[in-house]
Every structure is written in structure tokens, then in C-alpha cells.
Amino acid sequence: MQFVKHLDFGPVQAYELGYSPVGQPLVTTHVYFIDGIMIDTGQKHMSREIGNLLTDLAVQNVLLTHHHEDHSGNAAMMKNLL
Questions:
Q1: What distance in Å separates the CA atoms of residue 34 and residue 80, rounded to the nearest whole number?
Q2: How do residues 35-75 score in pLDDT, each as one tens digit?
Q3: Other Cβ atoms within 10 Å of 42 Cβ, number
Q4: Fold of 2-81
């Protein structure tokens, strides 16, 4: 089950993402968008949802905070789309 929740913090848009094969996700992660920059790319299991965000948002650059899968899981996919 995929979980996506949109949150606004002033000019910053946040998206809480989670994945679980059964039921609600136990762990979620966040990606943020501000001024054309997407901060982190979410977990690989959420590639369809991240791809949808790319079409909805005017992403020009991506900033990865660190290399863990839940933060950089869609970096390669986004590199090919941007």
C-alpha cells in the first residue's frame, strides 16, 4: 500500500511517503519542494508517485541530504527525467 500526504509549510511543500506490502506503512519519509528544488527523492517503492510529483511540480534541481535509500531511491530515475 502506498501512502502520500501533502503538507504545506509556507513556501515549502512537503510530501510524506510510505510503502507497505500489507496495511499502513510503519515508516514514512519526506521529500520537500521549494523554489524549483526537490530535497531528497523518496524510497524506490514510491517511484510512480515521485514521477507524478515531477509532472505536477516545476522541479529544476535535486538536492540529496544523504545516500540512504529512503532519501535517494529515485535519484537515477529523476536524473533521466529532468
A1: 21
A2: 999 999 999 989 999 988 888 899 999 999 999 988 999 99
A3: 29
A4: Metallo-beta-lactamase; Chain A (3.60.15)
